[in-house]
Amino acid sequence: MHKPFYKMTPNESKFLRVSESYTSVQGEGSHSGLPCHFIRTGVCDIRCSWCDTPQALSSGDFWSKEKILETIPAWIRLVQITGGEPLIQKASVIELSTILAAEPLGKKVLLETGGHRSLEGIPESVHIVMDIKLPGSGEDNHAFEKNFQYLKRSDEIKFVIKDQQDFEKTVSWIREYKLDKICNLLLSPVWGSVKLEKLVTWMLEESIDARIQTQLHKIIWGADATGV
Ligand code: SF4
User: Ligand 1 mean position to 168 CA, how many Å?
Assistant: First the structure.
């Protein structure tokens, strides 16, 4: 572990509410398969029907910056801030991302968000993975399109698809907003709900230029494992 490179002040004791922090393998998106340290923030302000991190919905202790940085192994290049919903604690997330990306740490920072809170002000250096929630989630009534202006070409929009209705809504989002011109697109089946084969067939039939993804960590450790 690296040594903390700054001194804590009394105000830093309640920096970020954290549900869990652990090193594993990135299971999703364009960084899938790479070693990654995950900082899972506590608390979420929506309730997706298929949420696979119920432990983070309303729990989490406040950690200092120093404690967070001490948990990240020096050799790890990729750090993902996820949740819960990280943007509930936006100011701290921006500050933490900036520290992680700058020297001497020089990490690649991924930010995973539900897409219902504004991405304005997220540093350019952060790789954003934003959900667009679909009808099957029960949380599709948010103005996700307001965030499109803040996405870079290299960022990712993720659709978690529960059934055919979700896929059809995905197609209409992509076509209406030309999302494939904005950033990279991920199609992810709700675990156990849609067969990958079916999702691939639908994608090819509709000529959708996206990446089908599985949740690699669930294949490795099982669907219910946490902290991996
Ligand atoms: S946004 Fe994420 S953490 Fe919140 S309910 Fe949905 S899946 Fe769970």
Answer: 22
Architecture of domain 15-221: Alpha-Beta Barrel (3.20)
Tell the residue number behind the tokens 């299971």, with chain if given: 27
> Which of 18, 85, 133, 215 is the best mutation target for the ligand 1 pocket, counting ligand atoms within 8 Å of the beta carbon and taking the most?
85
> Which residue do the tokens 């691939």 mark?
200
**Amino acid 7: pLDDT:** 47
Burial 157-183 (b: 16+ CB within 10 A, else e): bbbbbbeeebbebbbebbeeeebeebb
Residue ranges of domains in the chain:
15-221
Partners of 82 in the β-ladder = 40
Pairing of strands 108-113, 127-131: parallel
Residues lining ligand 1, Cβ inside 6 A: 44, 46-48, 51, 53, 56, 83-85, 114
CB 89 within 8 A of CB 42: no
Residue 3 — very low, low, confident or very high, per pLDDT cuts 50/70/90? very low
Share of the chain above pLDDT 70, in %: 92
